[in-house]
Inverse folding.
């Protein structure tokens, strides 16, 4: 008999916290036939693999999978979900903890509302091992489904890891594997695919901070790629944004304005459109909250030589065609750093780099990118010259 719930635990150097996370799954009043756990090791270098196998021997409903090298949280989640047999999915980070008897109410609320996903009402952030001291985040929208705008207007709405049906997951492109903001991007992808998500009142979850090994988020932030990863998130919903919002993003310097607080792309966009949903989104965007909305938008609008179509071509690995459009847009947006970066990405993709590795290789290749903590200095003119030389060599 298939379990109702599949809990996916992506694991990377988590031997100090994994046991507590797994134990919390067995404090839910569920029998071991009602759920399964799939742990996915993402190339750990400590004793995580040994611990995973030991825990799996203790419970018949646990499976372990392994990546031969570190591929990131998004890839680990996708690997686990693709192997899952449950109708409902939850991705539990290896340092987070379910509150006792918190899972059943979530599953019940999901079923009773007929929604595609359900998020926790209260998330308690604690440091290390001390759950007596914590800060609280509340998802206060409990009288309606969460809208895409709720994630972008400063309301504090946070899906993060949430319960959703596998059928709804299959409507999305899955978790992104080419950057570190996989859970943040998945929220946008999930709602942009037309899936409905509600909040379960009075539900509680424990979110650990500073568990030992730096999180994917911390590593991205300290590399200076905070705003750049936010840009990757917006690429997935670029077709839903208004022309003004697209231009705002194209003209934002994601390489120099990349700090927590107000100095990042998401904060700047939120400040500009905090109460202006109609200005942030294309007025017909609800027509494209569906699978392949990107491609459907382009077909319906019959738009040519736009950044929307260029991004769609890039995502479909038509790198040369996408590059031509990005190049044509340089005259319209001469101060943009995003366009030269995309031109270079296309050149790297065209020379045969795997799609998931293009961003990393682009940053490595571009010697004019000076990575510092929370900052990257980029010279657009130099990047254009590099991209042109690469494209000429490939011709």
């Amino acid at each position: 008999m298939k379990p109702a719930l599949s809990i996916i635990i992506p694991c990377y150097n988590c031997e100090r916290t994994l046991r507590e996370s797994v134990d919390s799954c067995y404090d839910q009043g569920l029998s071991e036939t009602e759920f399964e756990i799939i742990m996915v090791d993402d190339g750990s270098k400590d004793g995580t693999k040994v611990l995973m196998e030991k825990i799996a021997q203790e419970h018949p409903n646990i499976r372990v999978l392994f990546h031969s090298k570190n591929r990131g949280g998004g890839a680990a989640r996708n690997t686990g979900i693709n192997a899952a047999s449950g109708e409902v999915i939850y991705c539990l980070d290896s340092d987070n903890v379910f509150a006792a008897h918190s899972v059943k109410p979530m599953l019940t609320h999901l079923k009773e509302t007929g929604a595609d996903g359900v998020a926790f009402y209260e998330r308690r952030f604690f440091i290390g091992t001390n759950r007596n001291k914590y800060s609280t985040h509340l998802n206060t929208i409990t009288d309606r489904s969460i809208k895409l705008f709720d994630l972008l207007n400063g309301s504090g709405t946070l899906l993060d890891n949430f319960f959703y049906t596998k059928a709804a997951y299959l409507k999305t492109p899955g978790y992104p594997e080419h950057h570190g903001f996989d859970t943040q991007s998945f929220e946008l992808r999930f709602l942009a695919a037309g899936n409905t998500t509600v909040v379960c009142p009075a539900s509680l979850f424990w979110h650990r901070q500073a568990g030992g090994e730096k999180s994917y988020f911390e590593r991205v932030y300290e590399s200076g790629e905070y705003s750049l990863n936010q840009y990757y998130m917006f690429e997935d919903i670029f077709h839903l944004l208004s022309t003004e919002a697209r231009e705002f993003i194209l003209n934002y310097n994601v390489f120099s304005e990349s700090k927590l607080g107000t100095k990042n792309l998401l904060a700047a966009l939120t400040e500009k459109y905090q109460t202006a949903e109609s200005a942030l989104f294309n007025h017909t965007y609800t027509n494209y909250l569906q699978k392949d909305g990107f491609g459907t938008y382009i077909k319906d609008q019959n738009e040519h030589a736009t950044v929307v179509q260029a991004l769609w071509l890039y995502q479909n690995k038509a790198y040369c065609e996408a590059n031509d459009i990005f190049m044509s847009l340089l005259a319209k947006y001469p101060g943009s750093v995003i366009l030269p970066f995309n031109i270079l990405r296309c050149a790297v993709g065209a020379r045969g780099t795997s799609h998931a590795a293009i961003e990393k290789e682009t940053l490595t290749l571009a010697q004019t990118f000076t990575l510092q903590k929370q900052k990257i200095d980029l010279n657009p003119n130099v990047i254009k010259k590099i991209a042109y030389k690469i494209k000429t060599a490939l011709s």
Q: What stands out?
A: The CA atoms of residues 3 and 165 lie 13 Å apart. The chain has a mean pLDDT of 90. DSSP finds 17 helices and eleven strands in the chain.
